[in-house]
Amino acid sequence: xxxxxxxxxxxxxxxxxxxxxxxxxxxxxxxxxxxxxxxxxxxxxxxxxxxxxxxxxxxxxxxxxxxxxxxxxxxxxxxxxxxxxxxxxxxxxxxxxxxxxxxxxxxxxxxxxxxxxxxxxxxxxxxxxxxxxxxxxxxxxxxxxxxxxxxxxxxxxxxxxxxxxxxxxxxxxxxxxxxxxxxxxxxxxxxxxxxxxxxxxxxxxxxxxxxxxxxxxxxxxxxxxxxxxxx
Length: 231
Ligand SMILES: [Zn+2]
What we know:
By secondary structure, this protein is mainly α. About 80% of the residues lie in helices and about 0% in strands. It is built from seven helices and no strands. Helix 1 runs parallel beside helix 5, helix 2 (about 45-90) crosses helix 3 and helix 2 (about 45-90) runs antiparallel to helix 4. Zinc ion binds near residues 85 and 88.
C-alpha cells in the first residue's frame, strides 16, 4: 500500500498496542487483587503464589475464549456478507454497478465520473471493490479470531506475571504490601502508555488505571481480612 509522507495517524496501527495494554492491565489488576485478598486473609506464601498462578491461567483462558468468540462472530458476519455480495455480482452485475455508482455519487463524484470509476474498479476487482466501498471490509481491518485470542491471552499473562513475581520475591510477612505496590507502579506505567497510544493525556491515563487498580485491591483486601478473621 502506498504511504503518504509527512503525516502520522494514530488509528489502525495503534489498535493492537491499545488492546495489548488493556489485556496487561486486566492481568495486573485481577491477579494482584487475588494475591492481596488471599494474603490479607493470612494465607501462607505458597498458597498465595498458587492462587496467583491459578488466576493467571484462568484469566488468560477466559480472555482468549471471550476474544475468540466475539471476533469469530464478527468474522462470520463478514464472510456471510462477502458471500452474498459474490452472488449478487454474478446474478445482477448491472444492479451492482448502479449500486456502486450511487455510493461514489454520494461521496461527491458527479454521475458520469462515478460510473466511470465504478466500471474501472469493477473490471479489475469487482468483489474487492464492493467489499471495501459498500461493506467497509478491508484486508487490514479483517477480523482475525485466533490472532485476537492469542494477543489477549499473552498480554494478560504478561500483566499477571508482575504481581506474581513480586509475591514470590517479597519477604513472607510483606507479600500483600510488596505485590500491591508493584502492581500500582505497573498500572501507572500501563495507564500512561494507553493514554499515549490513544493520543490522550499520559497523566490522566495513568491516574485512571491506578484508581481502579487501587479500588480493586482495596476491595479484595477487605474481603480477605473479613474471611481471614471469620475462618
Ligand atoms: Zn454490491
